UniProtKB/TrEMBL annotation:
Belongs to the bacterial PQQ dehydrogenase family. Residues 1-23 form the signal peptide. This is Methanol dehydrogenase Lanthanide-dependent XoxF (XoxF5). CDD domains: PQQ_MDH.
Length: 598
């Protein structure tokens, strides 16, 4: 493997020298066209902001359905559509059907691609059989299938150009993440931390699907592609084999750190950003140490995979606070920053060129597992959370039930992406308002079998009944500006627009529009099923549309999606969200809205 990685780095350098950056040049230009939606996050910065302003906070009350489309799939629809010219593309949960729809004909099917996958992958997919969307580049649509296959489809015909298997589902590796095309490569992560899969990001050549590089979340420097002298953490070189020296023995080989979240890219700095997830197992007693580099923010060179800087948010994770949430690239004056809302309940702002930590504050008042993050640069614990022992599973040993921990393992925010408006300079964040009891127990590793080692139950914070908030956040000050309560967790992605409107969906199935400055609810519409997908907007023939995939599921909706009734099933989510079945039912639907009479 070491030899392969070194050869891959050499090959990637040669490609860079040839300046094969056509796809990147194309996408950098295309992302600036507000009429289309060419990437899962709207743009490389993952701001999910649109400059379209036909729909405003004054007229959004007149929004009505324009057309709809049934996907034919019942599980959780956690992605969102792309719009490129006159065509809309989107993917479904397993079996990962990809549709190309004709916008000139109210969504008539241009082509449909349905991969043939072994259904044995379904039991090893943690927290529902979701897929977070497709990517576009070089005239191709890229799909990351549940069985980890990355396939390139001709955007006009749907015919496969190439495909490559990225991991081994028999050992727990699965594919749920949306790819990202950067320069002449397409990047994907991997799921499977609950099965002891060692996480990584892979970069494949866009032309032929050959592996250019693969960077692991932990392991020797050759595996992580970390330069011990040049790669920094909070401004200091990380040193030799930083990906193994905080693990006991060979535990890092089954160390987790999955990478199933979102990837962003800064073309000027030539860095991609993403997060790594929880270490394996969930029983922290079995893996003493900081367990680097799980739970971290990564800045990598997309040409070689080499890491420029890294920051571990939750060392020795004791709560399953996956660090995979999106990295939103925005500017504060002349400073290029990265904003990240972690599952651990802290909103982070970092200098994305250097990795300097600028802000780390709680974005849900209920967070109690840590009092704060140490921001004193002269302190030995600089950048680390100050943990409260009574809310730290494992601090009193195994087989002890640690109660009243906030947030729950699904975090103050899970993968559902936030939005940022450069007009208001606010981030709009769908959040969970949920606490948990957490009991770790000893578990043995067997390839392809669950490697969790914890029993959970989830519920609202003490004295409260609502399980979600939709908030506006000032990332410079680290403060909540306004907050709207929701009965259940807000598990959909947000969308901000130049019309001073922000959209998001609810688990009951409502698509809502709120005022970007005040949070006042302006409009809502009940779609056929709960919403865990991501809203987008586009313009076609002079008219602005808003599109959303509904179809309840995901971790929060796993009880409905998989027919589970045991309150402790779904890693504790089934009991916490049992009431959801009173409000919605299964069914995948794309609903497209426009202004009435416009």
């Amino acid at each position: 493997m070491r030899k392969l990685l070194l050869m891959s780095c050499v090959a990637a350098t040669a490609l860079m020298a040839n300046s094969a950056v056509f796809a990147n040049d194309e996408l950098v230009k295309m992302q600036k066209n507000a009429k289309d939606w060419v990437m899962p996050g709207g743009n490389y910065a993952n701001t999910r902001f649109s400059e379209l302003n036909q729909i405003t906070n004054k007229n959004v009350k007149d929004l009505v359905p324009a057309w709809s489309f049934s996907t034919g799939v019942l599980r959780g629809h956690e992605g969102g559509p792309l719009v490129i010219g006159d065509v809309m593309y989107f993917s479904t949960p397993f079996p990962n059907i990809v549709y190309a729809l004709d916008l000139n004909n109210d969504g008539k099917i241009i082509w449909k691609y349905e991969p043939k996958q072994d259904p044995s992958v379904i039991p090893v997919m943690c927290c529902d059989t979701v897929n977070r969307g497709v990517a576009y580049g070089d005239g191709k649509i890229f799909l990351h299938q549940a069985d980890t296959t990355l396939v390139a489809l001709d955007a006009k015909t749907g015919q496969p150009a190439w495909s490559v298997k990225d991991g081994d589902p028999s050992k727990g590796a699965t594919g749920t993440s949306a790819p990202l095309v950067v320069k002449d490569k397409v990047l994907i992560g991997v799921s499977g931390g609950e099965f002891g899969v060692r996480g990584y990001v892979s970069a494949y050549n866009i032309k032929d699907g050959k592996l250019a590089w693969r960077g692991y979340s932990m392991g020797p420097d050759a595996d992580t592609i970390i330069n011990p002298e040049k790669t920094t953490a909070l401004g200091k070189p990380v040193g030799k084999d930083s990906g193994t020296n905080t693990w006991e023995g060979d535990q890092w080989k089954i160390g987790g750190g999955a990478t199933w979240g979102w990837i962003s890219y800064d073309p000027e700095l030539n860095l991609v950003y993403y997060g790594s997830g929880n270490p394996s197992t969930w029983n922290p007693v079995q893996r003493p140490g900081d367990n680097r580099w799980s739970m971290s923010i990564w800045a990598r060179n997309p040409d070689s995979g080499e890491v420029k800087w890294i920051y571990q948010m939750t060392p020795h994770d004791q709560w399953d606070y996956d660090g995979i949430n999106e990295m939103v690239l925005q500017n504060q004056g002349n400073k290029k920053v990265l904003v990240h809302f972690d599952r651990n309940g802290f909103g982070y702002t970092l200098d994305r060129a250097t990795g300097e930590l600028l802000v780390a504050e709680k974005y849900d008042p209920a967070v109690n597992w840590a009092t704060k993050v140490d921001m004193d640069k002269s302190s030995k614990t600089y950048g680390r959370p100050e943990v409260v022992a009574k809310y730290a599973p494992g601090s009193q040993g195994e087989d002890v039930n640690y109660k009243g921990i906030c947030p729950a393992a699904l975090g103050s925010k899970d993968e559902q992406p936030s939005a940022y408006s450069p007009i208001t300079e606010l981030n709009y964040v769908p959040t969970n308002h949920v606490c948990m009891d957490y009991e770790p127990f000893r578990v043995s590793y067997t390839a392809g079998q669950p490697y969790v080692g914890a029993t959970l139950s989830m519920y609202p914070p003490p004295g409260q009944s609502h399980m979600g908030n939709f908030i506006a956040w000032d990332a410079k000050a680290g403060k909540i500006v306004w907050s709207d309560k929701e009965q259940f967790s807000v598990w959909s992605g947000a969308l901000a627009t130049a019309g001073n409107v922000v959209f998001y969906g609810t688990l009951e199935g409502y698509l809502k529009a709120v005022d970007a400055k005040t949070g006042e609810e302006l409009w809502k519409y009940k779609t056929p099923s709960g919403i865990i997908g991501n809203v987008n907007t586009y313009e076609h023939n002079g008219k602005q549309y808003v599109a959303i995939l509904s179809g309840v599921g995901g971790w929060a909706g796993i009880g409905l999606a998989a027919g589970l009734t045991d309150p402790n099933a779904g890693l504790g989510a089934v009991g916490g969200y049992a009431a959801l079945s009173n409000y919605t039912a299964l069914g995948g639907t794309l609903t497209v809205f426009a202004l009435h009479g416009k």
